[in-house]
Specification:
By secondary structure, the protein is mainly alpha-helical. It has one domain. It is built from 4 helices and no strands. Helix 1 packs across helix 2, helix 2 runs parallel beside helix 4 and helix 3 runs antiparallel to helix 4. The longest helix has 12 residues.
Length: 82
């Protein structure tokens, strides 16, 4: 399995932290934020379920730019072979 060595950037990690603290943030945004934050200082990769969620978010007009930023970060850290 090809390992993806990308990590969440400091800016996206900050956005993820703020999203998790935001009581009005959607469950989707919080899932993506948690995934992005968990990958900020490790070599963890995005799982298939979060990969699908991130892809859906990026292709939908209903999500905010912040949520799409989190989705993009999560998706960029997915398994290279999937």
């Amino acid at each position: 399995m090809a390992k993806n060595k990308k990590q969440t950037s400091k800016d996206v990690a900050t956005l993820a932290s703020e999203t998790l603290k935001d009581k009005s943030a959607s469950e989707t945004a919080k899932k993506l934020a948690a995934s992005a934050l968990s990958q900020s200082s490790t070599k963890k990769q995005t799982g298939a379920e979060l990969e699908d969620l991130a892809s859906t978010v990026l292709s939908s007009p209903k999500y905010s730019e912040d949520t799409k930023s989190l989705a993009g970060s999560v998706l960029s850290q997915s398994n290279k072979k999937r």
